[in-house]
Amino acid sequence: MNNIKIGIIGGTGYTGVELLRLLAQHPAAEVLCITSRSERGRAVSDLYPSLRGHYDDLAYSEPDGGHFAACDVVFAATPNGIAMNYAKQLQANEVKLIDFSADFRISDAALWSKWYGMEHACPELLVQAVYGLPEVNRKQIRKANLVANPGCYPTAVQLGFAPLLQDGLVDVQSLIADCKSGVSGAGRGAAVANLFSEINESVRAYNAMGHRHQPEIEQGLSHIANEPVQMTFVPHLMPMVRGIHATLYANLKSNDVDLQALYEAHYASEPFVDVLPAGSHPDTRSVRGTNICRIAVHHLVQSQQALVLSVEDNLVKGAAGQAIQNMNIMFGLEEAMGLDLPALLP
Amino acid sequence: MNNIKIGIIGGTGYTGVELLRLLAQHPAAEVLCITSRSERGRAVSDLYPSLRGHYDDLAYSEPDGGHFAACDVVFAATPNGIAMNYAKQLQANEVKLIDFSADFRISDAALWSKWYGMEHACPELLVQAVYGLPEVNRKQIRKANLVANPGCYPTAVQLGFAPLLQDGLVDVQSLIADCKSGVSGAGRGAAVANLFSEINESVRAYNAMGHRHQPEIEQGLSHIANEPVQMTFVPHLMPMVRGIHATLYANLKSNDVDLQALYEAHYASEPFVDVLPAGSHPDTRSVRGTNICRIAVHHLVQSQQALVLSVEDNLVKGAAGQAIQNMNIMFGLEEAMGLDLPALLP
Amino acid sequence: MNNIKIGIIGGTGYTGVELLRLLAQHPAAEVLCITSRSERGRAVSDLYPSLRGHYDDLAYSEPDGGHFAACDVVFAATPNGIAMNYAKQLQANEVKLIDFSADFRISDAALWSKWYGMEHACPELLVQAVYGLPEVNRKQIRKANLVANPGCYPTAVQLGFAPLLQDGLVDVQSLIADCKSGVSGAGRGAAVANLFSEINESVRAYNAMGHRHQPEIEQGLSHIANEPVQMTFVPHLMPMVRGIHATLYANLKSNDVDLQALYEAHYASEPFVDVLPAGSHPDTRSVRGTNICRIAVHHLVQSQQALVLSVEDNLVKGAAGQAIQNMNIMFGLEEAMGLDLPALLP
Amino acid sequence: MNNIKIGIIGGTGYTGVELLRLLAQHPAAEVLCITSRSERGRAVSDLYPSLRGHYDDLAYSEPDGGHFAACDVVFAATPNGIAMNYAKQLQANEVKLIDFSADFRISDAALWSKWYGMEHACPELLVQAVYGLPEVNRKQIRKANLVANPGCYPTAVQLGFAPLLQDGLVDVQSLIADCKSGVSGAGRGAAVANLFSEINESVRAYNAMGHRHQPEIEQGLSHIANEPVQMTFVPHLMPMVRGIHATLYANLKSNDVDLQALYEAHYASEPFVDVLPAGSHPDTRSVRGTNICRIAVHHLVQSQQALVLSVEDNLVKGAAGQAIQNMNIMFGLEEAMGLDLPALLP
Question: In chain A, what is the greatest distance between 2 CA atoms, to the nearest angstrom?
Fold first, then answer.
């Protein structure tokens, strides 16, 4: 089999370097080019010495769509509002696109514009784009040319709620997602708020009155539930680099349900969702560096609630790893190829 | 005025050293004696070099009730099940007791035994004991001889929910407290689970199916609401030393309420509860080392919910600081004496 | 006695907020005004909620020398190259200046220009300026109008080496200072290198071939030794916010010396240098939030070396605390006034 | 080729779980059995959920030499003083032994007893044992049946000093190793000193007057230099889990030497030593999870010193990774097999 030829748009940030780390251990991937305006001409292993010995001939080049014509697939690891400008040309060249940003995640262009504060460059592609959550949309991903890779919070939250919603077991107006995230989710931009001296030894909530991932999650959950779902979503920033811990609450319609059996059955054949034994509490480090979403479900009988604890590595299952999982599906490879390593612990 | 003469039972742990730190800057306090079985004979400033220059003549002595007869008040900074064995003798000697442990927090002895796994040594004192949350029980504390200092989670949670419950604004069956705590709350005992290498760069929930602070909180909230309150409580461990962040959810009976005004009015005259401006997100570091509980309230109109963010330093307002606040009240001192310093930030 | 009236230039950074924290607990200090171009008009307690309740009427004002005429003393908590522009006008108004920056630390203007890359605005004041290390220059500080507050590394290193050099016990060409610093020393500027995700779980050296504090330290050590001293200086960045640990090596001229007695005698009457018992290893947290420099000395007989371990809080003894100590000396107050609190531990 | 059949003695600690993580991605390794007295009968993936999906049939068994007869090689990831009791029986069964502990690192039994405080169980094997630092002893390792895997500090320090010593460029009495280590090096034992609340936001030296790794390092350096080497060694504990940063100082005999060229040539063909370009400062995270030792060398002309910055992951190149590298060499596999993944960053 030939290697898949890969282009990367904007690979200087944390999802970019994580993508490079994971592709270095993928047996069927070859990175042809990587672009960055700010770092053009610089060797990738000079910016990231952790990659020395793995990409010694790769340097950042000036972004310019022409580069990508020889690629089979392009990953866009860019801020919101960039990838949508590349999508049409890539389609014209028959190059697949897996977009890490939010550009193609919301199918309603007006809703997208409201949350992201700009006009969409190609709203006609929104319906074509497939939302890249394999556990929900595997079939569509297989045939997709344009995949919107889910956000980090949306992945942990949707995988946590899905079994309850698919089987109609909970009040769809009662959902609460109290999420705790590492700081790498905020990216590598120079911002006072993300300085070590601002973050260490402190915890706080943010965007309690509205976070951009909320409409994405509600769209996904409504799709799974097949009815409109409303969710309260409160993200918190943790003094750690990697990891998301989603603590999910939902009111059960009945206490007469075996949640443990439900979750185990729902995810029995999934390579990247691991349901822990009853009574467990997953810690984020147990998935560090891996593409696993690890879930525990608790039945709070007294309050007739389901409590779901869902953890992931925001840079892997919440970004670069899930993107590779999508690539594997799109190109007919084994889904777990290059992604089956254990977590780095401690 | 004469100094208050103070005894400390078991001051080798984190609440003990924090009590010593705070008392060193209290203008009317004098530590007469401190006991510890394991460290008897050792200078306090040898175990804690951070106290060098402040308690140079103080050494740990063998615990034995006789020591405390000359004290005005004794603080018990001991594990659960110890202080209850000292209570009667202290009463006989007319020495007040402020207990950091859970021994006198639950007024129902059977419920206490169920959660703490032992018989209570003096159940007859449970009704005498005053629950030391000044914002709720200030009058009773003034006359108390035996104060049960509240737990760390219970302080942040009760102060956060109190205005809603006192005014009957929420469904008392809908409360959720998603709490995030620093590791110092787990104490200074040698435990693998609290090693740096187990905690750093990771987040997890624990005791999701039942934590000892739950009956304490429900008892307190029911008292405030004047009806039985049920709460879902999920504690999480953070990779930080100090701080609790309580994220509180409650379903409002009506959206026709001004939550910001409610909270500001409720706490207008409290020296140690600080209600932030509308739209705020308190961070735990903003109260590090202080006796402040800092609160922000958000009205989630769409889901008709109140969202309360409540932060404290678990070792201060959640333990040693609140104990000193109680002492100040019990001895007729200015309530904020020795406790009015700003937070250590960054 | 009247309060000392204080102005602060540029108080938005970490040394600025630390200065405000410490002045809040100083019994004879009153902050009249604080300036900041970027934050003018904003309440100090809005930028730093940790200060709520302490400076509620204080807001940042536009920098403009006129403000300070009513002050007794001005602290400049600014980047290098700013304070030197205020010095002459303050002198004309008979307002004392304590400068946190490097503007007046190097007495040789040419050497200063070489390391700081600009012309000095008032080289004639360099000789007037007193280097504000009280343990060395207390007498001159008492009469000074312009004090150059020492850098953070220079304080820990000079206090560590001083007893050896003053008594001529070591080869002055053999000194090595291997220093470990918390990140707050790098300030609150938005820089990728100081992001949490860049710093946590990592250690590295920086500026191994030359750091601006080296000429400052060598000037100070040469002054103490009364002969030219040369030192190898390698600073390292630690994944912590506060604290400096200086590990100091020097070749002894003879093994026939009692280093422990030497250090204890040298610092016997110093309020802010604490020599630990023989065999100790100070940790930086033991001085967190305090003005103490804590020192242990080890005699490595086999290699005929002195090993000195010197720790401080870079924002206190390394900046704002030492500045207040200098203020106390300059105004004839008790030297430890407002600075005698124990460390925050854990 | 057949898989190498592996036994592990004592695999519950951090070097044990790291060994399992690395072996899971080794294409020619098969773990037959793993022993632990305290955890016998427990599934490995129950103790370490991070390994779920990788060792689902592996459980800890009672230690008892008989288990290992079917193995090709046994790794001892045990405290000092255990492996030496297994060595003879393994030899009798023709099973190779790679020992992570110090039992076979010091060839002088009396010196070993002095530092480790016990009698050696099989001093006659000390001369047979090969010190497993491949960059120095590759030929001997190839034929060895008993390999003493080097300590974490010794690996970083010896690799850092080796080029200078081998070429006789420095004064062998002038060496200083100022080392900074993550806490995982102290193991997973329950110890107050290693609690999160003791370690975070603090730095300190320890064992300044003598650390067990000193004789090991001096023995190794003397072997490389072919003359007795004396070194000052001061280890420090960092608030991080993984990583060692060794800062090495040595007095050059002459300034007329090109250190950069020397280091590049010395390590040109080494798969796991990476010499950075001139002027670099390696950070420990750049090798996190990898078997790389990354080195920068600086020539301090003024003081005629070499300054070497050497970083490694203490659990990989400092323990489990180097052990696998040794296994690869001993069994004639490609030396980098299973070890060529990039670092986890951020």
Answer: 62
Whether C242 and chain B come into contact, CB under 8 Å, resolves to yes
Question: Given the structure tokens 């509620």, which residue do they identify?
Answer: C56
Q: Give the nearest partner residue to C285 out of D182, D201, D279, using CB atoms.
A: D201
B213 touches chain C (CB under 8 A): no
Q: How far apart are CA C102 and CA C84, in angstroms?
A: 10
ipTM of the shown complex:
0.97
Give C254's contacts (C-beta < 8 A, 6+ positions apart): C169, C304
Chain A residue with the nearest C-alpha to that of C184: A197
CB contact under 8 Å between B190 and D191, yes or no, is: yes
Chain A touched by C240 (CB under 8 Å): yes
D339, A54 in Cβ contact below 8 A? no
Neighbouring CB atoms inside 10 A of A192's CB total 12
Cβ contact A343–D288 (<8 Å): no
Look at residues C316, C314, C44, C35 and name the one whose alpha carbon lies nearest to residue C186: C314
- Which residues from B are below 8 Å from D243, CB to CB? none
C152-313: CATH topology is: Dihydrodipicolinate Reductase; domain 2 (3.30.360)
Name the minimum distance, in Å, from the CA of A214 to any CA of chain B.
13
- Would the CB atoms of C341 and B343 count as touching at under 8 Å? no
Return all residues near A295 (Cβ < 8 A) that are at least 6 apart: A159, A160, A263, A267, A273, A274, A275, A276, A282, A308, A309, A310, A311
Positions of E strands within chain B: 4-9, 29-35, 60-61, 73-76, 96-99, 130-131, 146-148, 175-181, 204-205, 231-237, 244-251, 273-275, 293-300, 305-312
For residue A171, is it left (φ>0), alpha (ψ between -120 and 50) or beta? Answer: beta
Residues of chain C with CATH 3.40.50.720: 4-128
pLDDT in tens, A49-107: 999 999 999 999 998 756 799 999 999 999 999 999 999 999 999 999 999 999 999 99
Q: Quick check: B343 contacting C, CB < 8 Å?
A: yes
DSSP letter at D334 equals -
Contacts of A346 in chain D (CB under 8 A): 14, 17, 184, 241-242
Looking at CATH, the fold of the domain delimited by C4-128 is given as: Rossmann fold (3.40.50)
Instruction: Dig out the tokens for C233 from the structure.
Output: 């200086």
Residue B28 token pair: 């009317």
Name the pLDDT band for B64 (thresholds 50, 70, 90): confident
Mean residue pLDDT of chain D comes to 96
| Location of each CATH 3.30.360.10 domain in chain C | 152-313
CA distance A5 to B93: 83
Burial class (CB in 10 A: 0-12, 13-18, 19+), C111: middle
Q: Return contacts of B273-276, CB within 8 angstroms, 24+ apart.
A: B273/B135, B273/B159, B274/C52, B274/C53, B276/C49
DSSP A285: G
Cis? peptide before A228, omega within 30° of 0: no
Model pLDDT for residues C115-127, shown as the tens digit of each residue: 999 999 999 999 9
Smallest CA–CA separation between A304 and chain B, in Å?
10
Residue D65 has pLDDT above 80, yes or no: no
Phi and psi dihedrals of C296, rounded to 5? -125, 140
Q: Which two tokens stand for residue C260?
A: 């422990």
- Give per-residue pLDDT as tens, B4-53: 999 999 989 999 999 999 999 999 999 999 999 999 999 999 999 999 99
Alpha-helical runs (H) found in B169-212: 196-199
* Number of neighbouring beta carbons within 10 Å of residue A290: 24
What is the spatial distance between Cα B166 and Cα D159, in angstroms, rounded to a whole number? 68
The reply to whether residue A204 touches residue B245, judged by beta carbons under 8 angstroms, is: yes
